[in-house]
């Protein structure tokens, strides 16, 4: 393919053949507004906000689906274009609830931003509005169809990126609605609850279930000892909510902000991420030596777990039996920590700060009560934490850094990299290699499992035993990988799968505006945080060593099995079929 040269608003630009007018304009420094467009994912020209005038053409053209051509002359801001865009936007707004003051997306709503940019102060078109019930059937995601603008971004990301197809377009004309199959509640279809749909929704039609009220109530209850754990990915994303550069590491400031909210103890999920590596690594070695089910697949990502339960229930035996670090933490907070602190576990309220909407579902699973209580009581996304901090006027980027509390606040660099795709695999290899070979690694960086490729493969020599490993991120890639394993096309001993593109740094609970560029910047921050820590191998964590000596006994032991391991549940497959 060659290049084409065109003129946009008097500026000449040369782009590769096949480039859309919208993308060509961006390269020329001209911003064309859009609502439905997502590069390579949703290019359907449905919203018509991106129309432009092309000399020689009778009708205005949707720039996102119009290919650039040699000699084309494009005008993006003529009176005709501006009036058409305003009319389209007014029509969209005319069927939209006027709830900006109370909407969770106020301030991060693309529809609101466009209305402001176009100077819309009144709506000329008034008529009947669509009315649909709010879907609050899941513990993770709320659907408000009345706020949907039918852009179908969520449909495309669910189908093309995640390979789930939990959402689709139902009805016709004014009765059109984006919904689960047969307009069922979201909880009744095969949805992974990963929240990627929430990240791409331009309005408040999709949002996380708000748990801030439950957390405020617990913080205000003097009978409750409220502890909080923070996932690795939060420390490189929270700053974005307060204007920091994506990938900025705000670990210490985040700790200070959580103390300002009133938490009794501020702990780190990195502690149980290290613990996960000890349990999971030993589980892998046991399967390798005793002929257990291989490949063994990681179980840290709850969206991935729900996906395999729906779509590949015949492969559940391949999953590690380890709980996720979040759930391990909850179980230990209400047993080990309760015992050490002399607190009745019924009075301990465990809050998790997670980059993930599926974690809200995970903490409600009936299997997650091995302590005798619900392991984790409430999960907040990065966005919810930011809202709570804004409520008290605390900006973590302006606070002096503080340290996590001991003993559940001590973690290694291996735990930090759990936040990026390939991180769990790399952390496991750092430990498994040294346990098997009894040799110290010359370099702890297993770069073969890093990067943003959808599926990555590597081989690791464990003193003569070659272990084949694979890493996948995004459920669409997980599907490809599982199909390869089932067909015999590929053979591995160990697989890491994360539900979200980029891993947890790209989770469905992360700041709105998450895209590939921001994911890459957060991944860079994750590896910087790893390098900055004095300990970078999970088996060197002194607090984890003490945990085994004082409480658990040994990896895969009776107490570990009781508190830190679980089982999984085959589920139905009801979803939109294509």
Commentary on this structure:
The protein has 578 residues and is of the alpha/beta class. It folds into three domains: 3-93, Ubiquitin-like (UB roll) (Roll), CATH 3.10.20.740; 130-207, 2-Layer Sandwich (Alpha-Beta Plaits), CATH 3.30.70; 212-564, Rossmann fold. Helix content is 34%, strand content 13%. It has helices spanning 21-27, 79-94, 110-117, 153-161, 196-200, 212-219, 251-261, 270-290, 302-311, 325-341, 358-362, 382-391, 413-416, 423-437, 475-487, 516-532, 542-552, 558-564, and strands spanning 3-8, 11-16, 51-54, 61-62, 73-75, 141-143, 168-170, 177-179, 206-208, 225-230, 265-268, 296-297, 348-354, 378-381, 455-462, 465-473, 494-498. The strands form five sheets. It has a five-stranded mixed beta sheet with strand order 2-1-5-3-4, with helices on both faces. Strand 7 (168-170) and strand 8 (177-179) form a beta hairpin. Helix 8 (270-290) crosses helix 10 (325-341) and helix 8 crosses helix 14 (423-437).
